[in-house]
Amino acid sequence: MSLVHLVLLAALLSLVTAASSSPGSRSILRDIGGGNADQKDKAVELNSTNFDSVLHDTPAKYAVVEFFAHWCPACRNYKPHYEKVARLFNGPDAIHPGTVLMTRVDCAMKTNTKLCDRFDVSHYPMLFWGPPTKFVSGSGEPKKTKSELLVIDDGRTAERLLNWINKQLGSSYGLDDQKFENEHVMSNITDYKQISQAVYDIEEATAVAFDIIIEHKAIKSSETSASFIRFIQLLAAHHPSRRCRKGTAEILVNYDDLCPSGKCSYEVSGGKDTLGNFPICGKDVPRGYYMFCRGSKNDTRGFSCGLWVLMHSLSVRIEDGESHFAFTALCDFVNNFFMCDECRLHFNDMCLSVKTPFKKARDFVLWVWSTHNKVNERLIKDEASLGTGDPKFPKMIWPPKELCPSCYLSSSQKNIEWDEDQVYKFLKNYYGPKLISLYKEKSVMGSKKETITATEDMTVATNALVVPIGAALAIAVASCAFGALACYWRTQQKNRKPRRSWN
Ligand SMILES: Cc1cc2nc3c(=O)[nH]c(=O)nc-3n(C[C@H](O)[C@H](O)[C@H](O)COP(=O)(O)OP(=O)(O)OC[C@H]3O[C@@H](n4cnc5c(N)ncnc54)[C@H](O)[C@@H]3O)c2cc1C
Questions:
Q1: Is 323 within a domain?
Q2: Residue 101 C-alpha to ligand 1 middle, in angstroms?
Q3: Which residues line ligand 1 (CB under 6 A)?
């Protein structure tokens, strides 16, 4: 054996020794087995801290949890198989998003011992299948919910695992499926139920909007600072997602420290308390998972669709007394922070055309709706001539008759006569209860704790309706309950880690 071989062998041995002695280095061992260290893992690594929250919050209908041990050679060899399947379902480039969440838990980590015990893990790797909420603690002991949590008994190779999953789903997914096949794009716009998936898209769009502000260091003056605060106040009171309400309220409470005299620190690393380190909708918010807003091409829909849905969902949640504040907050937000210049300018023109302050929430809801339709009307023409639209989601004057027949008094090729009372009623329900119905459903199915979450969700939403938004900041500072919450958040914040995306 040459000297070079000896040095290589010694280096390899020291790697393996390091990997087996320190938990943090387990990834080194798995990378050797995984073959392609450059490719980011698609399966989501869970542990005792994030297990419940990730599985509770995932939009996916089913989850697979792989219990493994980082020292187990069979697990190491199994990883490429598992990842092949995870590639189909997880991450920004998922082929079939929103269907299955593929996860893994390292049972050799001391901190995960109790978690693995809960599932009676008897060998490695051991795979479980079921609705994500059924994995969450408090949803009943895994042994008792056996009918819903299944052990995957035939998943030794990627092909066999996918076959097993296909049998459960009644699907015919293949390992070679490519992104954006027609069947997973929600092109049936007349399906009323699809809006219930959009709450996840709104969370993502909110997080992306915030990222853009951080990236562009866009809070540059007292004017943009005031505009940012107004928008955050609106979100803290009325965002349909509880975790976004919480995240934005945290920013609001800490704003003076994060942006003294309107000068924000945007640093996104180092664990410091900076605006850049605040996960506006929680640290586990999905990225690249747009479902309701998923386009049939890589560069269509997504963020801008999510932003519209956010705006509509905010509009239906405000009270009469807040309507003009909400209008100003949205207009200023788009004008200062939406980095699409053409969009910003057109939208600003439509904002400036409003001469009398809104007094009724209804008027504001209908203004957002008709403004969106004006944009649609323009884009119908632009996209037809330029061919830049999404072929599966052509722009249309909305809602189509199939979604809301009663919204139409009459319609001809050139003109639609709307029944605005019916449109208002439709929008209130569609972007209100219908939008969060999946959230509620998940909570009802889940644990006692989750039921509280659901009640809390509804309570906040209901309270938010009767709290004038102009008072939101004052409430944050003055209200006892909110003050206590703020203290809690401040304490939490001390232990804050840098922001990271889900997968
Ligand atoms: C404020 C703003 C201004 C924009 N301005 C421009 C622009 O000037 N030029 C440009 O090229 N792009 C503009 N965009 C982007 C454009 O409007 C679309 O968002 C983008 O083309 C993606 O279209 P989409 O098919 O996902 O549907 P979107 O238009 O994004 O709509 C998202 C969803 O909202 C629902 N919806 C549609 N219309 C209405 C309505 N009237 N009321 C309620 N719900 C509705 C539908 O379910 C639809 O799928 C703007 C976006 C925003 C947020």
A1: yes
A2: 29
A3: 293, 301, 304-305, 307-309, 312, 334, 342-343, 346-347, 369, 372-373, 375-376, 379, 390, 393, 398
